[in-house]
Amino acid sequence: MPLLDIRNVSFIDGSKTILDHVSVSAESHDFISITGPSGSGKSTLLKICSHMISPTEGDVFFKDRNFTDYNPVELRRKISHCFQTPCLWGRTVRENIYFPYWLRGIKPDQERIRNLFSLFRLPLAYMDQSAEKLSGGEKQRIALIRSIVIEPEILLLDEVTSALDAENTQITEQVIQHLHEEGLTVLWVTHSTVQSRKYANKILTVVSGQIHSLEVIK
Amino acid sequence: MNAASVSTASLFMASSLVLVTLFISYWQRLHLEKGILTGAVRAVVQLSVIGYILVSVFNLNSPAFTTFLLFFMIFNAAYNAAKRGRCIRHGIFISFLSIGGGTAATLSVLIVSGTIEYTPYQIIPVSGMIIGNAMVALGLCYRQMTSNFQRRRDEVETKLALGADIGLSSREIIRDSIKTGMVPTIDSAKTLGIVSLPGMMTGLILAGVSPIEAVKYQIIVTFMLLSATSLSSVSACYLSYKSFFNARKQLVRY
């Protein structure tokens, strides 16, 4: 049984077809890299996977249950989506990191927070930093920590390293790889073929809203 | 100028002030001439009509007809406020409930406390001020909310993606919109007596009432406008934010 199953999905925006009868599935512990030229529909596919938008046609299944049978909020708590442009709010980083805990009404897991800060090579003192004063790379790493601070079942990443320098990209890749080794299922939209080949076990190429190829490399 | 009456000739002379507005619009190419003329003509016609209606209503002194007139005023205000939030589903209904609720709550306090009586002579002008103020506040709330949902789309979507419900994802936007609706009334309260002598107080003084008595009325009016604006803004924003999401709790694009 696939963890996430996209069946014959199309997405039409006005008169423009963004995705055209796409079918793909992710097994548990998969690391799928989604590549393709700009405007090919990769980000739209990811948004459909996190139920931020619904397909115009076709269905998406999570653990063999149609997305439409889930409470959207509960579903999004299982499938975490980190966007290309990090968006932080509030006065401090702490407010952002505690946000997922606060939503669920649970106490923040300080041990996990410490671990993630260490993996992303960020000093824990950053918790009390102003979110506005962080650099782009730091913001993205904080946004990533926020997305995984409560471990999701699937992590969706939309070009999260595209605006990062080489060092920050490497740190992020290593953390994602580490989490994948611990059992996390990852779908990563990226432009980098090097990144795709280095970490993914499947490479999905999307061209003009259609699946061009699905390569199983590991 | 006589304390209580204005001659028709004076009224015509004062009407020439509209020309100043028209000139500014023409000079600065604001293209507001049509709006200014329509506004001026409508103000004269509507006020003249309401003047005669009020004479009849005050003479009739019927609580049922006064209530009917209140509903009519609230409906018109709701209709106008809803125009500022065209993407808000059931905008007229939400505005009607919010303005009606704010007006009813404020009037109840005023009536129970014995400040005013449920007579057309007192209820109609007081409600007119409340309803008009609430209408402007709601228009501002809707515009701010629509603009915020467009501008802060990333923030709302990020919160949704983290598993927040639509209310939590929109909380900052809702608060900001309520604030936008309330700020003009609060600012106006802050500058009363320093910057402006408001309409009601001026009217009473012109009609020969002592300034001290006029001030007492103005204080009541100020507090009642603050209460009605806040109640209407809060209820309208909390009732309308859901329009920006679909049944699957996804942010809709407008």
Strand order of the largest sheet of chain A: 6-7-8-3-9-10
Shape of chain B: globular
Largest sheet of chain B: none
Number of helices of chain A: 7
How many DSSP helices of chain B?
Answer: 10
Chain oligomer state: heterodimer
Number of β-strand runs of chain B: 0
Strand fraction of chain A: 25-35%
* Secondary structural class of chain A: alpha/beta
Cα Rg of chain B? 21 Å
How do the SSEs of chain B run, as a string of H and E? HHHHHHHHHH
Average of per-residue pLDDT values of chain B: 91
Portion in strands of chain B: under 5%
Helical percent range of chain A? 25-40%
CATH homologous group name of one domain in chain A: P-loop containing nucleotide triphosphate hydrolases
Largest interface: A-B, 25 and 17 residues
Poorly predicted runs of 5 or more residues of chain B: none
Can you describe this structure?
The complex is a heterodimer of chains A (218) and B (254). With 218 residues, chain A is an alpha/beta fold. Chain A has 7 helices and 10 strands. Chain A has a domain at 4-88 and 153-216: P-loop containing nucleotide triphosphate hydrolases (Rossmann fold, 3-Layer(aba) Sandwich). In chain A, the strands form 2 sheets. In chain A, strands 6-7-8-3-9-10 form a 6-stranded mixed β-sheet, sandwiched between helices. A 4-stranded antiparallel β-sheet of chain A has the order 2-1-4-5, with helices on one face. The longest helix of chain B is centred in the middle third of the chain and has 32 residues, at 120-151. Helices cover 76% and strands 0% of the residues of chain B. Chain A binds chain B through residues 50-54, 68, 72-74, 76-77, 80-83, 85, 87, 89, 99-100, 103-104, 143, 146-147, and chain B through 154-155, 157-165, 168, 172, 248-251.
